[in-house]
Amino acid sequence: MVMEDSNFRVIIVGGSVAGLVFAHCLNRAGIEHLILEKGNEVAPDLGASIGIMPNGARILEQLGLHEKIEQCIEPMSISHIIFPDGLALESRYLQNIYERFGYSVAFLARAEFLRIAYELYPEKAKIITGKKVTEVNRCQGGICAVTDDGSVYQGSIIVGADGVHSRIRSEMWRIANKDSLGSILDEEKKSMTVEYACVFGISSGIKGLGDGEQINAFLDGAAVMMMQGKGDRVFWFIFKKLDQKYVYPDTPRFSMDDAEKLCREMKDVRLYRELCVDDLWRTKQTASMTALEEGLFKTWFYDRMVLLGDSVHKVSQSSLPGHRSCLPKPTTTATR
């Protein structure tokens, strides 16, 4: 159902997975909107991958995105689970998921997902790149986003889909503090923590994995997950428990040297059959390392500001729920 024309306008900050999916939802609902993306590209190749679960696939199909995405994925069918004591199990739960829900669990590069979401978005002029929002201010009849080049964009509400280091969340807190809610927010600001780091990447030419196979290797103080995707690509994650629990924003940052050091330390760790960590690192096309934030903020909106995705909730990625959990939120927000 398309809404009648009105002066209501949504400013989306962040051309992320959540941001672009939300834009598609608003477009379908006939709600005026604009996307401000700080990067110069909508779909940069940063080496990350995205997992699509049935709950997300159902939404993507309704938005007209799933058919194109299916061309880039290899459905997962078999999961091999390896425990620290050497016990190994084979599970067909991935096939069961497909049989019960009609959609497969699958992975593709995050850049591919963003490219498809952008290409199929019908009003590309509404996506403005190179616009880093630095400030949010109340203005007559709405709220304004100010970017680093001095541009000002006015809307009825601002939606922060700008990730775990969300500027919109910070601005929401700042404005709420001015409204005498500081004591409530001070405690909430400490609710996001970091206990794990992750090296993630995409490799190719790895022998020993079949199409649609997934490996979950649980080690002492670490875990490795890998999925055979389409086009001979393997998406992998190495999770490592840190020496202490950090409270955001005082959390560690990691470089490519840190990623290489960890993979070198674990290079001889056998994951499945003859496959070792070194096989992943040696054949990588791209890789990176990041801290894994975990937390759920209580304040999801204030005044004319709303948070989506990682800006408001971040869960352990050892089970890879990140992107699949961010897909239902834009649709729920759009319908309200």
UniProtKB/TrEMBL annotation:
InterPro entries: FAD-bd, FAD/NAD-bd_sf, FAD_mOase_fung. Keywords: FAD, Flavoprotein, Oxidoreductase. GO terms for molecular function: FAD binding; monooxygenase activity. Residues 9-316 form the FAD-binding domain. It comes from the Eukaryota. Residues 316-336 are annotated as: Disordered. Belongs to the paxM FAD-dependent monooxygenase family. This is FAD-binding domain-containing protein. It comes from Aspergillus puulaauensis. The lineage of its organism: Eukaryota, Fungi, Dikarya, Ascomycota, Pezizomycotina.
